[in-house]
UniProtKB/TrEMBL annotation:
SnoaL-like domain boundaries: 165-276
InterPro entries on file: Cyclase_SnoaL-like (IPR009959), NTF2-like_dom_sf (IPR032710), SnoaL-like (IPR037401)
Coiled coil stretches, renumbered: none
BP GO terms, sorted: polyketide metabolic process
TM ranges: none
Pfam families, per the entry: SnoaL, SnoaL_2
Protein name stated in the entry: Putative ester cyclase
């Protein structure tokens, strides 16, 4: 059975090979019949996987995947990374613009006994990527990305962290924001959808905006990984569009009555009191808009 250090090394090597353009070197890191769900595109097989990871090299030659954190829990890894590059090739119907792009990404790997990736889930902020390429959002300079050590679990909070994750998302699904408030720190920093909100009031205000558009929205947890004082949570948001939704570009999608479902991956940190004081959310808003308008 591969140990924590081995799985961490494999997970970090994946992006190092990508950044160096050594895409084929990632072949031995994955199982022959790897199962992939990449931004809702689902397929199996190593050869298709290698084709898939090359897709950004044309429109964004030399794109870099900067790991911010790698969390290992059992036979799984949760990776939060930043994609940085420039629009140097054809992207959809857009000719090269030279514009800088920088979006967040999340991956969850499940390893087999040979320390190969047997299952991969990927979520990227593709809505922000399109906004940056089209000029609706501007990236002046790429940020410096410093890897974060998950640290050691605070005394008495190792097991409780997983329980608190479930309590938090259960409370949010029930619309019980008072119950959610006691699980997060007063000075919590939340970074959802390219935004930054601070404090409990900011956190609850952000959730209220979502509830106004989707009053029955629930969060169905798929995976919880805990490593040190951090956690990675993969879950599906589901609900009914009963209120106006303001999108990333400022346009408004009027209530349609349609239902939606999409995956989000959150990365959070716990303070010494066992409260969440940082939450970074990775999702693709285009998935929601497509289900409400197509």
């Amino acid at each position: 059975m591969p140990d924590h250090e081995t799985l961490h090394r494999v997970a970090s090597t994946f992006h190092k090979n990508f950044n160096a353009g050594r895409f084929d070197d990632n072949g031995p890191l994955v199982a022959e019949e790897i199962s992939v769900d990449s931004n809702t595109v689902r397929f199996t097989g190593r050869s298709r996987f290698l084709e898939r990871i090359r897709r950004f090299d044309g429109p964004f030659p030399g794109m870099q995947l900067r790991d911010r954190m790698i969390l290992i829990d059992g036979m799984k890894a949760g990776v939060h990374y930043i994609m940085q590059g420039e629009h140097g090739g054809q992207f959809g119907d857009l000719s090269p613009t030279g514009r800088k792009v920088e979006i967040r990404g999340a991956e969850i790997f499940t390893f087999n006994d040979e320390a190969q990736m047997a299952d991969l889930v990927t979520v990227n902020e593709l809505d922000r990527l399109k906004a940056q390429v089209s000029g609706r959002e501007s990236i002046a300079e790429h940020a410096d990305i410093t890897p974060v050590d998950p640290g050691s679990p605070h005394v008495g909070h190792g097991i409780a962290q997983r329980e608190r994750v479930h309590q938090l998302y259960d409370s949010l699904s029930q619309g019980d924001h008072d119950a959610a408030m006691v699980l997060v720190a007063e000075d919590i920093v939340v970074q959802p959808d390219g935004e930054r909100v601070e404090g409990r009031d900011g956190f609850v205000g952000y959730m209220h905006r979502h509830r106004s558009a989707f009053p029955d929205m629930t969060s169905e947890i798929e995976d919880v990984l805990v490593d040190g004082n951090r956690a990675c949570v993969s879950y599906h948001r589901r609900g009914t569009h009963r209120g106006d939704l303001t999108t990333l570009d400022g346009s408004v999608v009027a209530a349609s009555g349609r239902t939606f479902s999409f995956r989000t991956v959150d990365f959070m940190r716990f303070n010494r009191q066992g409260l969440v004081d940082e939450l970074i959310s990775v999702s693709n808003g285009d998935e929601v808009v497509a289900q409400l308008t197509d």
